[in-house]
Amino acid sequence: MTTLLVIIVAFFLPMLFLLARTTRRRRTCASKLPPGPMGIPILGDNLGFLLALWTDRLAEWAGRRVDKYGPVSKLSLFGAPTVLLAGPAASKFVFTSDAFVSEQLKPFKRMIGERTITQLAGGEHRRLRGAIAQFLRLDMMKKYVGRVDEEVRHHIAANWAGRDRVTVVPLAKSLSLDLIGSLVYDIDSRDVRNRLKRDFVDIMDGLWADGIGLPFLNLNRTTRACARVRGTLTEIVRARREAHEQGRRSSKEDLITYLISLESRDPAEDHVFVDDEIIDISMLVMLAGYDTSSVLITFMIRHLANDPPTRAAVVREQEEIANSKASKEDPLTWDDVAKMKYTWRVAMEILRMIPPLFGARRTAVRDVEYDGYTIPKGWNALWLASVTQMDATIFPEPAKFDPTRFENPSIPAYSFQAFGGGLHACPGNEFARLETLVTMHYLVTRFDWKLCCKPDGLRRNPSPSPTKGLPIRLEPRI
């Protein structure tokens, strides 16, 4: 709850300035602005939005606004005039229009960096996203199955085997960072990985609060942790650049070397990534893996504990794959992963009901028209995943868990955006799929589990997490 209060307090002063600026701007195009009030003076709509976010009720919050003002409405959020856009057509507009750039809170920019895929637009965005997507493309993931298998087995042996109780959230996050460290950055040293993991815990504690420098809010600790991570990555980038220049390292070995290698391929193309830019990219990739795949794995474990029929079907699918192996020590292959169809449908339904990313704010770089209304330059467009993913007209009985929705999906475009869409589709979706399926394979074939805490509530800060970290009791399967 501390973070919630920090965010509110941190925006008081900027709001005073932005309120005056917004009022002037509003007069110039008032006849075309979307309907809706701008909320309580100074505070805007922050209290209602943050409470809905914290309690994971953004769908209800947005639904009330849509019922009252329609699918396009204005409000004041985080000190900036904002337009809430609801529905598949609005999602497509936000994801595909080049009139918007992503808007992040100041500490995100300061800690993660200014030149990341979330901060750029136009040609620079395409250049960066294309580079990451090329390295994480499907045929590369097929080559990584064995390494993912090895990392997951090591993690389970070290943290799950022989224990009768574990807390899932920190373990899932630790595994995600280990996989990123091993596969994406090829960091062999577990000491280095463990340092990065410890620092990332501190970074996430303060990332979403405004950096106002109050010691009791741990923001100074967060800043120091971020500096340590960036320092470690700086050393890695320098070492990889030297190894690549001396011909001792291939561009296929890790993302950092791949980005370094691009500058030597075609001097006529603007592919050069300077060291600071590579570090920013690396920070963002680590953040994305830390707080997305781990969320999916966590809530799959929670759901399977509460849904015996679904769990039985997942176990049956995974045991068929395990029993097809000549030995229990044989690693999974890409063909094995491709057979995990039902397990992935369960994962997709989890993502629909509990999206790791609640939504996104994007800032208009010019006046833009949508549905007869003007979104002025400098205003934010707010997209919320749950608005469409919990819409009964798109997903009948949206509160019901039903993986069959994804058997032969006829879901309207831009109604399910667990991995973004359009210009902002996640380039790491296959990596997330591979990590999730391999992890769930070894968990369900080796353990049964029960929740230690019932009910186990859910809070967003801003990613969803069980309130107590999801402690479970383990029973090894015979």
Detailed description of the structure:
It is a single chain. The protein has 478 residues and is of the alpha+beta class. It has helices at 2-10, 12-28, 46-54, 58-69, 88-96, 106-112, 122-135, 138-159, 168-184, 190-206, 219-245, 255-261, 275-290, 293-306, 308-323, 334-338, 341-353, 385-389, 429-446, and strands at 72-77, 80-85, 100-102, 165-167, 359-364, 368-370, 373-375, 380-384, 447-451, 458-460, 464-466, 471-476. It is globular and about 65 Å long. Strand 1 and strand 2 (80-85) form a beta hairpin. The protein has 19 helices and twelve strands. The model is unreliable at 1-29 and 210-216 (pLDDT under 50).
Detail the topology: elements first, then pairings.
Elements: H1 2-10, H2 12-28, H3 46-54, H4 58-69, E1 72-77, E2 80-85, H5 88-96, E3 100-102, H6 106-112, H7 122-135, H8 138-159, E4 165-167, H9 168-184, H10 190-206, H11 219-245, H12 255-261, H13 275-290, H14 293-306, H15 308-323, H16 334-338, H17 341-353, E5 359-364, E6 368-370, E7 373-375, E8 380-384, H18 385-389, H19 429-446, E9 447-451, E10 458-460, E11 464-466, E12 471-476
Helix pairs in contact: 3-4, 8-9, 8-19, 9-10, 9-13, 9-14, 10-11, 11-12, 11-13, 14-17, 14-19, 15-17, 15-19
Pfam family, one: p450
GO molecular function: heme binding; iron ion binding; monooxygenase activity; oxidoreductase activity, acting on paired donors, with incorporation or reduction of molecular oxygen
GO biological process, one term: sterol metabolic process
